[in-house]
Specification:
This protein is an alpha/beta fold and about 450 residues long. The chain folds into three domains: about 200 residues, 2-enoyl-CoA Hydratase, Chain A, domain 1; about 130 residues; about 60 residues, Nucleic acid-binding proteins (OB fold (Dihydrolipoamide Acetyltransferase, E2P), Beta Barrel). It is built from 14 helices and 16 strands. The strands form four sheets. A six-stranded parallel beta sheet has the order 8-5-3-2-1-11, sandwiched between helices. A hairpin with a 2-residue loop joins strand 9 and strand 10. Helix 10 packs parallel to helix 14, helix 12 runs antiparallel to helix 13 and helix 13 runs antiparallel to helix 14. The longest helix has 29 residues.
Length: about 450
């Protein structure tokens, strides 16, 4: 009976606890789950559009799609770049399964040349105040396009391409064409007023807030952007891509090439040194890699290689400086022609080229001078080195061809002289033929 009373007394408490659990469960079912915070991947890029840039941007677009990001913002600041690399990025943007926003920023940035194509291709084009876009006229690598027919073909192709991109994104096609045909440039305010871009924003968070609720077409589907208060995940270049971008600088590539030439020269001059040859080979290979990402004039490379060959041959062939002069002239001409492009980012800086050539020329001129000086020194060994030695007659020398004995250089020699010389006479060696020395008496004023 006591157990029954205890159970009866505990029953109200159990009923109360069960009721609380049921109420909590019902409340959880009625309350809607917290919505997921939007995720935006930020891809900052500053510099010329090269194969390294196209690899970086396309990889980040794929990464954002795999991560389920709601959008990608490419923060762009570029002076232009290579047509092939630009088209690779544009194709990746057009094929992206998520909205891509190109934001020309920060203030003072630009989207020139290839950057204008990339900006217009974006689902949303945005610019920061104080930025500009345009100047997309095509320029041939290695110099200006000389043939008028080819020039028209290239220009018309680029104009049609940028107009097609503008048409696909609902932007002003005629104005986009003028970027190519007239190389015009627009400020952010002008581009927004002309309908060439969609938004002007100070910062990336402000840009995302202004895009909230905007309708964009991704592929065949329309999406409403929900980016207000989005979580921003920056995806800058990795160490490998930063290193490759650093290599793709004309000045760095040129310095690496000179270091490679130095290394090979030292290795060929002193076979077996190994370290100069290894470092020189690595430097040359890195320079060649950089050249493939730059508008290189192959005539310039040919002249530089020819100059290198002539300078190395100077060590092996006695040209009395002729090969050195020819090699330096070839090196200077090759350096001037190496990056013959009107694009500032693709040109070799004179502040790098002039000191580089001066150091290179000074080094080889010093080498030639040291060789000439060494050749003018008196011989330090062999019979020719005995000329000028002093000694004394130990056995009288008869005139003409009647030899006597002399001592010089710590040795006893048979010797002849033009006139008879008595024993004990101080002599100077004129020359040596076989084991016979020709001597002459040492004047009293030259005796020690």
């Amino acid at each position: 009976m006591r157990m029954c009373h205890a159970r009866l007394r505990a029953l109200p408490w159990l009923s109360c606890g069960l009721g609380l659990v049921l109420v909590a469960t019902a409340s959880a079912q009625e309350t809607p789950p917290d919505s997921r915070r939007p995720l935006v991947h930020l891809v900052p890029f500053d510099g010329p559009i090269t194969p390294v840039a196209s690899e970086y941007v396309t990889a980040r677009l794929e990464q954002a799609a795999d991560a389920g990001a709601d959008a990608v913002v490419i923060e762009l600041d570029t002076p232009g770049g290579l047509d092939v690399a630009m088209r690779t990025i544009v194709k990746a943007i057009l094929a992206a399964p998520l909205p891509v926003v190109v934001f020309v920023a920060p203030p003072g940035a630009r989207a020139a040349s290839a950057g204008a194509f990339i900006t217009i291709a974006a689902h949303v084009a945005a610019m920061a105040p104080g930025t500009n876009i345009g100047s997309a006229s095509p320029v041939q690598i290695g110099g200006a396009i000389q043939d008028s027919t080819m020039s028209h073909k290239v220009t018309n192709d680029a104009a049609a391409y940028i107009a097609a991109l503008a048409h696909q994104r609902g932007r002003d096609e005629a104005l986009a064409r003028r970027f190519v045909t007239e190389a015009i440039n627009l400020t952010a305010t002008e581009a927004r007023a002309a309908g060439l871009i969609d938004v002007i924003a100070e910062t990336v968070p402000a840009l995302l807030d202004s895009l909230h609720g905007r309708l964009v077409t991704v592929g065949d589907a329309e999406r409403v952007l929900d980016l207000a208060g989005a979580s921003i995940e920056a995806l800058p270049m990795g160490p490998r891509q930063r290193f490759l971008k650093w290599l793709a600088d004309p000045n760095v590539a040129y310095i690496l090439m000179l270091l490679g030439i130095y290394g090979l020269f030292f290795e060929l001059s002193n076979p077996g040194a190994l370290v100069p040859g290894i470092l020189g080979g690595i430097s040359l290979l890195l320079a060649l890699f950089a050249f493939q990402a730059l508008p290189v004039n192959y005539a310039g490379i040919g002249l530089i290689l020819l100059g290198m060959v002539m300078l190395i041959l100077e060590v092996k062939v006695h040209s009395y400086g002729g090969l050195t002069i020819g090699g330096l002239a070839s090196l200077v001409l090759g350096s001037l022609l190496l990056f013959d492009s009107p694009e500032p980012w693709a040109r070799l800086s004179l502040s790098v080229m002039v000191p580089g050539i001066a150091v290179f020329a000074g080094f080889f001129v010093l080498c030639v001078w040291l060789v000439v000086r060494a050749q003018r020194r008196p011989a330090l060994g062999g019979k020719s080195a005995l000329a000028g030695d002093r000694g004394r007659v130990v056995e009288a020398i008869g005139g003409g061809d009647r030899p006597g004995k002399v001592v010089f250089h710590g040795e006893m020699w048979d010797a002849v002289a033009d006139a008879a010389l008595a024993a004990g006479t101080r002599i100077e060696v004129i020359g040596v033929s076989g084991r016979l020395a020709r001597v002459r008496p040492l004047p009293p004023e030259r005796e020690d």
